[in-house]
Amino acid sequence: MSRLLFWSFETGASSSTTAPTPNAYAGMMMALLPPGRLWRLVESFLSTLFAACADELGRLEARTRDLLDEADPTTADELLPEYESELELPSTGSIAERQARVIARIVARQRYRPTDLQTTLAPLLGTVTIIERTHSFASSLGDDREIFRFFVYRDPTAPGTYFVMSAQALLDTIKPSHTIGQVIESTSALYDDPHSLYDRDLMGA
């Protein structure tokens, strides 16, 4: 019986392959009977019995395939609350946003270079550009603290769905504590800087 249940693992089939039909399962069980005329005498009974077993095997097969999908955060649905609970993430937003949030948290690391931030935030934002302050730029503003500010720019005209608020929430938890990281969608518009109240910072920061 276990050979029937786990045929997909033995044959290397994935959750995307076609599962056997109940009739196919019933045929497999009939084929496992030893040869002999005896089975012809009880063929009607066995057909009914195997048909009932085949329905249950089909259900187990379907749930096994569901488990394979749920084991991957990119396709998880039923187990999303489990991932979010384990990773201490909110369960708000669409399924796609919640999946992206889980993936981004899983790949997050404690120390970051710009490329690490791009990789970590990619599930939520897609392709982004990291904009860092230079010492000369901070000096020109008269505020040395500006060197600790950086921006994650997501071009709003680029294709794909992105989630700015979720990305900002994740960035706030993974950035070095002495820095200020902000997700933005514009590199030209300026607005009031929270330190000085002068119009000199990037829109959205």
Structural notes for this entry:
This protein is mainly alpha-helical and 205 residues long. The chain folds into two domains: 2-70, no CATH class; 94-202, no CATH class. It is built from ten helices and five strands. The chain has helices spanning 2-5, 7-11, 22-31, 38-41, 43-70, 80-87, 95-107, 114-125, 135-141, 164-174, and strands at 129-132, 149-153, 180-184, 190-192, 199-202. Strands 1-2-3 form a three-stranded mixed sheet. A two-stranded antiparallel sheet has the order 4-5. A hairpin with a 6-residue loop joins strand 4 (190-192) and strand 5 (199-202). Helix 6 packs across helix 7 (95-107). The longest helix has 28 residues, at 43-70. The protein is rod-shaped and about 95 Å long.
Radius of gyration: 28 Å
> What amount of the residues lies in strands?
5-15%
Q: What is the makeup of the main sheet?
A: 3 strands, mixed
User: Which class do the helix and strand fractions yield?
Assistant: mainly alpha
Order of helices and strands: HHHHHHHHEHEHEEE
- Shape, per Cα inertia axes: rod-shaped
Number of helices: 10
**Regions with little confidence, pLDDT below 50 for 5+ residues:** 1-14, 195-200
Strand order of the largest sheet: 1-2-3
* Overall pLDDT: 78
